[in-house]
Design brief:
Shape: globular
Distance between the termini: 10 Å
Number of domains: 1
Strand content: 15-25%
């Protein structure tokens, strides 16, 4: 059975692995401190650890990666873009099957119409994860991203 992986982009994102109705993993995106982007240390994606996580599922998985947010604050945008690129490099180097989606795609499918506001979206995603998977989390976005991958790319 294919495993579906949802990645909520960014150094504060999470990775969810679904197999059927079971959450196999729901973990923080691995990061490492770095001073390469400025005078103070900042988190970046730990590509080696990300590869180790994904390697467990490489034989039969499909992955959805959320695009970074554009606009807003410059630091958040550049961090999101760097995280996205690092994650994408790992996925491509491993020759994994994947799709890149925008947040609004999973939000439109699983959240009530006209849901607005970051905190409300997070709260509803967390409630969905608890209701449908029994998962207590403060970041249910990756669960819904994995669910979207499962519904769009399942091969019955």
């Amino acid at each position: 059975m294919t495993v579906f992986i949802g990645i909520d982009n960014g150094v504060t994102g999470r990775i969810t692995v679904l197999k059927g109705l079971e959450v196999l993993e729901h973990i923080a995106t691995p990061t490492v401190k770095s001073i390469y982007y400025g005078k103070t240390a900042a988190n970046r994606i730990n590509r080696k650890e990300l590869k180790n996580i994904l390697n467990k599922y490489k034989d039969d998985c499909f992955l959805c990666l959320e695009k970074p947010v554009t606009g807003g604050f410059a630091n958040q945008v550049s961090s999101g873009a760097r995280s996205f690129e690092a994650t994408l490099i790992v996925i491509e180097d491993m020759n994994l099957r994947f799709d890149v989606i925008e947040a609004k795609e999973w939000q439109k499918k699983y959240l009530p119409k006209k849901t607005k506001g970051r905190s409300l979206i997070k709260r509803l995603a967390n409630q969905y994860a608890k209701r449908n998977y029994g998962l207590e989390t403060k970041d249910g976005d990756s669960v819904l991203i994995a669910k979207l991958a499962q519904e769009k790319y399942r091969e019955d």
